[in-house]
Design brief:
Blueprint: E1 2-6, H1 15-25, E2 28-31, H2 38-47, E3 59-62, E4 65-68, H3 70-80, H4 88-112, H5 125-154, H6 166-181, H7 183-189, H8 194-204, H9 207-213
Parallel strand pairs: 1-2
Antiparallel strand pairs: 1-3, 3-4
Length: 235
Amino acid sequence: MRYELYYWGEIQGRGEYVRLALEDAGADYVDVARKANGTGAMMKLMEQKRGTPPFAPPFLKAGKLLIGQTANILLYLGARHGLAPKTEGGRLWLHQLQLTITDFVLEVHDTHHPLGPSLYYEDQRAPAKKRTEEFWNERVPKYLGYFEDIVTANGAAYVTGRRATYVDLSLFQLVEGLRYGFPKRMKAFEADIPRLVALRDRVAERPNIKAYLASDRRIPFNESGIFRHYRELDG
């Protein structure tokens, strides 16, 4: 099956978690919005009234299925491509972890847009600085500490054992994104999450991921995405 991924063509954003899964699986897919007239095709699917129209990108077209929401797409891909446990309990546990990652990604976004996405960052600099301090003092230790404890307790290479899952790929993206957005703060914090950093390194060396990261398919981080670097927020 050739998948069609619909997401904004200029940013990594929430679509990157899906891209990483597709790339690691060696799946045949097209990143539609990065093609000519692709954004128009994406908007047309969102505006349709019949069937199962998605609320917002990312969404994935897989045969006759049109699947929205990052965690939901990964739940589907994980079962099809060996990126999730085979048992129902294992798949639900992984989905639960991905939903927790989704919560954290929203908090990352709110460091630079605490008053909402309708305002420019320049219109909310002071609230952003306050929110970022709280984020690093309270939220980062809580979330990343949670995942560090899970990886440590498992005692294996990846979150659920010896085989990588889509959650491992997503945790890789979290570490990469925080390194980009907050290089000084993240450098100081990484001593508290050695297992997550080691997991990030293992994922980066997976053959398909390594090839993807070196290719032009990997959109560079930028200040239009979720992870943004503003020097005044980096301590």
